[in-house]
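Reply to dn_fold:

You asked what the input looked like. This is it:
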Amino acid sequence: MPAEPHPATADHRATAQPATADRLPLRRRLLPVIALLLLAPWAAECSWGGFAIDDFLPVLIFLGPMYGGAAILIRETARHLGAGWPTIVLLATAFGVLQAGLVDQSLFNPDYLNDTQYADTRAAAEATLVPGLEFSLRQAFDYVGNHIVLTICAPIVLIESFLGADRRLRPWLGRPGLAVVGVLYLLGSLLIFSDSRKGFLASPLQLTFAAVVVLALIATALLPRWRHPRPRRAPSAAPDSTAPGSTAPDSAALGQRGAARRAPHPLWVGLLVVLVRFGTDLTPGWAGVGIALALAATVGGLIAYWSSRAAWGQRHVLAAGSASLLTAAAFAYLVPPYSPATPEAALAGDVAVTVITVALVGGAWWRLRRASPAPAPAG
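and this is what came back:
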């Protein structure tokens, strides 16, 4: 998953002008909040071809409070704490388990997709049932993974990339705004809980398991280790050679070391994320799940490692966050929507997905290039 731009540039620059965002008119302060509220449900359910074009608006209306509310609360929690992408990814994982395990309970309901055009996936899902808990590890990876990359991370990355550096890592809402969003999320989740379970209720053991996983992920996400209370020294920055007892190497040696440890081009970061998407479908069954989990862990660890190098910036974050959205849009032409639709409506939806996705990602890249024509070094 994407990692934060180095705090030596991004976080320090954001906190160096604490009053900038507060001076903005209310409509400008709320614009990214509204954009995230609408983008999260569209990315979660429409960006991969789940709905035909005439269902886009109902998806935004009925799923916006739940998906959009969750994305806003997760983003604001991380930014209020001064935390970065590890916290956002962990909270997104918690949301994915909460959504699939406790809200719509699709993780435990074997008949959840029976009235959709994905009913034939049940046999493949049952090939990876976890004994005792009776849920498919294959479905768990898909459901939770899609919530992480499409519902939460990709929308946050895109919206933040459209903002200036002084607003990108700052909170957008105060306590009253967070309270309103929290109520919207709860109401949206209750609506889905009462409507989407189709009379199914998971067993006490299943519900307890999901709740424990959610609480463990939230507790891990809130650990102080993920926060950056003050800017870290950039890797290539020389320590103060005048300090007593300083044994630091000369600046030329540090500069060479920093150049040797520069982050790769953002294109390589995006390609790695695409690799995970293709790798998840290499083979069915337990072997396929093992390969998918190994790929996701490897790519995530590699991106986290690269993010500590010089010249890592928002372009790398955007490449990692938007690659999943672009891949989902490309595959939209190959998958059917949940409900049967005319070929014309399905194709129109897929074309709309392509146009919207390219416009969002292209606009975010243009905004970053306009703000900074050349990638800034990490320190």
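The chain has 14 helices and no strands.
Hope that clears it up.
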